[in-house]
Amino acid sequence: MRSVPLLISSFFLLLGNVLADTHVYNWTTSWGKENPDGLHKMDVVLCNGEYPWPDIRVKEGDRVIINLTNGLPDQNTSLHFHGLFQENTNEYDGVPMLTQCDIPPNETMVYNFTVPDQHGSYWYHSHTKGQYMDGMRGAFIIEDKDDAPFDYDEDVTLTITEWYHSMISDLIPEFLNRFNPTGAEPIPQTLLFNNTLNGTWNVKPDTTYLLRIINIGGFLSQYVWIEDHSFTVVAVDGVYVEPNETDYLYITVAQRYDVLVHTKNDTSKNYAFMQKMDEDMLDTTDGVIHMNSTNAVVYNSSAPLPDEYYSDNYLDDFLDDFYLVPVDKQELYDDYDYQIKIDVVMDNLDDGINYAFFNNITYVAPKVPALGTVLSSGNYSTNELVYGTNTNSFVLQKDEVVELVLNNNDTGKHPFHLHGHVFQVVERGPDYTDSEDPVPYNESAPYTAPEYPMIRDTLYVRPQSYFRIRFKADNPGVWYFHCHIEWHLLQGLAIVLIEDPEQIQKDQSVSENWKDICNANGVPYDGNAAANTNNFLDLTNQNVQVKNLPAGFTARGIVALVFSCIAGILGCAAICYYGMAQIPDMEKKVYAELSPEERLMLDKEDDDDIEDEEEASSDSKIKGRFIFREGW
Ligand SMILES: *[C@@H]1O[C@H](CO)[C@@H](O)[C@H](O)[C@H]1NC(C)=O
Ligand SMILES: *[C@@H]1O[C@H](CO)[C@@H](O)[C@H](O)[C@H]1NC(C)=O
Ligand SMILES: *[C@@H]1O[C@H](CO)[C@@H](O)[C@H](O)[C@H]1NC(C)=O
Ligand SMILES: *[C@@H]1O[C@H](CO)[C@@H](O)[C@H](O)[C@H]1NC(C)=O
Ligand SMILES: *[C@@H]1O[C@H](CO)[C@@H](O)[C@H](O)[C@H]1NC(C)=O
Ligand SMILES: *[C@@H]1O[C@H](CO)[C@@H](O)[C@H](O)[C@H]1NC(C)=O
Ligand SMILES: *[C@@H]1O[C@H](CO)[C@@H](O)[C@H](O)[C@H]1NC(C)=O
Ligand SMILES: *[C@@H]1O[C@H](CO)[C@@H](O)[C@H](O)[C@H]1NC(C)=O
Ligand SMILES: *[C@@H]1O[C@H](CO)[C@@H](O)[C@H](O)[C@H]1NC(C)=O
Ligand SMILES: *[C@@H]1O[C@H](CO)[C@@H](O)[C@H](O)[C@H]1NC(C)=O
Ligand SMILES: *[C@@H]1O[C@H](CO)[C@@H](O)[C@H](O)[C@H]1NC(C)=O
Ligand SMILES: *[C@@H]1O[C@H](CO)[C@@H](O)[C@H](O)[C@H]1NC(C)=O
Ligand SMILES: [Cu+2]
Fold this sequence. Notes:
This protein is α+β, with helices and mostly antiparallel strands. The chain has 3 domains: 17-149, Cupredoxins -  blue copper proteins (Immunoglobulin-like, Sandwich); 151-326, Cupredoxins -  blue copper proteins (Immunoglobulin-like); 338-442 and 449-521, Cupredoxins -  blue copper proteins (Immunoglobulin-like), CATH 2.60.40.420. The chain is 17% helix and 29% strand. The protein has a 6-stranded mixed sheet with strand order 10-9-12-17-14-15, with no helix packed on it. A 6-stranded mixed sheet has the order 21-20-23-28-25-26. A 5-stranded mixed sheet has the order 11-19-18-13-16, with no helix packed on it. A hairpin with a 5-residue loop joins β20 and β21. The longest helix has 17 residues, at 3-19. Mean pLDDT is 89; it is low at 1-16, 571-591 and 605-632. Bound molecules: 2-acetamido-2-deoxy-beta-D-glucopyranose (12 copies) and copper (II) ion (CU). Residues 26, 67, 69, 108, 110 line the site of one 2-acetamido-2-deoxy-beta-D-glucopyranose.
């Protein structure tokens, strides 16, 4: 009796294998000069000598093999497939020091995985130090093996991103710098539409397009809209949702919106496809060349290109994704087994640099990739301690429902992404910008959650507010949860979920090639976070964060001190001229011009006699000229 269904299922399994394709990509990175926005030529990361990187398009169930050779002489690399579950292939999730070692120059890593149960719009990108913002990224589309729950005629991908006229590796040392004590993010110059400024989309009349809009940026959310056309949202982050029509979309970095756009019958006119930076995320607009960008929906190539189509309505009328309803109506997990509460804070440490913290910890990578620790730690794998005390690691039990409560004590918006899962959005608090203090989630306040909550993999939290998400720990692996603003990830805004480590040990291993990469990079892959293989509970010499500011010396104090030093040397006019957000080489110039005493004053982090905070911050004339990030 039992053999019948078994036979049938193995028949379909066989059929599935026959129908599944394997896609092999041999990719080599290199630097090359490109000019995506037509305004500035600079080095970007090329793929096999070409730019931009290709889109990947596969069918549900297919195998993908990416043979990635690092041809960059001066940087490591890695590749993450954003939104893919990587079930039983955690080793290919692409996060340096969590699921693999960074790929050093001249080495080749083979990523080899299937996409058995996912479809929709995803993307891939380097997960090494902001590198993807230099161009190493592309769309990853998985065609549904079944029919989509909506009709369309054409399937079109569209990537959007902010663009910098500087290499990220040049911006990082200016950003993570004591002369940028407020943590002001570098200011991008333009916006790209399918990798060009003022792009065009050639359309046919009376046609329903499935437009897959993917924000492949590393910083800014964007508002998008099309003159005289509406969007019908049918999927977000690979999850089908009940159709919802809107004129304006708000898309954070890493989010995807699949929308239907029906074109007009009349082909006499072309229409503006607008992109607009979320200006609230910028500390200053100095340095922005195009805050908005006008692209063209072209019906008729002999008709004139459209003018900018501007309206302020986007601010109030953009679709709130919280209210979307997934088509397969998964009910809210009615309770959680394990709750993780994390508070976001931005603050300075003793080196004067502005860091980002979850519960007072700024993520510092371990000495051994956490997956290597899982696989080498035997019975200790369920003990959080072995993953280090500065990685913000949480061990999850098999199949438990996890509720993650995130309180945002910062005054900015942040788009958070969970690897290895999609999650239910149980609650998202309103914008509390105007509140003096942040408003944390209050468990005892009355609240009715949606019956069929929104499900996605990247969700923003509003200023000084909170969100709550739930998911089932049914995908054993080491999964990163982090802010997708690359600047904030560099500041340490991440936690690590070690999901069912015992099952990882049973079902997963790493390839020889995976180990070769670690060896080539001189990184151990066995041992605890301190690379100790003898005593897994001994974390001596683990990587830890910089120590706190000395007592009585606050972040505000250091800001005032730095600014008063700069002002003293250069004078206010120069500072006001440069602005504080992007100060190309300014800190170096200032530092070079400091007197030995002043340098000493900035250098001596350990000295308790530093000018006391009152005195420093009373220099309000100087302070008042700069934009301060609140939240500390
Ligand atoms: C990838 O490279 C290997 C070895 O160099 C070669 O055998 C294979 O044909 C290449 N595949 C593709 C798709 O280029
Ligand atoms: C990957 O590329 C390298 C270098 O071209 C080649 O030696 C190797 O055989 C390739 N591997 C696969 C799986 O294609
Ligand atoms: C590459 O990674 C190794 C190991 O983490 C590190 O020591 C090295 O500094 C990195 N190289 C660069 C250029 O960042
Ligand atoms: C990488 O290979 C090239 C060519 O073989 C060589 O010139 C270069 O020194 C190598 N770089 C490293 C970091 O090993
Ligand atoms: C990819 O993984 C499959 C399944 O483990 C294996 O059979 C195949 O040999 C692998 N291919 C490469 C190029 O590593
Ligand atoms: C964007 O580029 C992709 C290929 O790179 C192309 O298939 C697609 O049609 C373009 N999208 C638009 C809206 O033009
Ligand atoms: C557009 O044209 C098609 C056929 O050419 C017609 O069926 C349809 O009703 C027209 N739509 C509008 C809005 O006029
Ligand atoms: C859009 O950007 C352009 C160029 O930066 C600017 O001239 C224009 O005023 C902007 N439009 C609006 C309404 O902000
Ligand atoms: C691109 O669009 C912006 C904003 O609408 C406009 O100010 C600018 O002139 C356009 N640039 C080009 C090269 O067309
Ligand atoms: C569509 O979105 C609006 C506003 O975001 C929401 O009120 C409404 O319930 C949604 N409807 C559906 C069917 O998703
Ligand atoms: C963060 O540190 C402060 C002061 O050191 C302490 O009062 C607070 O309890 C800590 N919060 C968490 C969540 O660890
Ligand atoms: C975040 O803000 C809330 C409300 O002001 C406060 O209770 C909490 O301690 C803060 N968290 C941290 C880590 O500072
Ligand atoms: Cu952030």
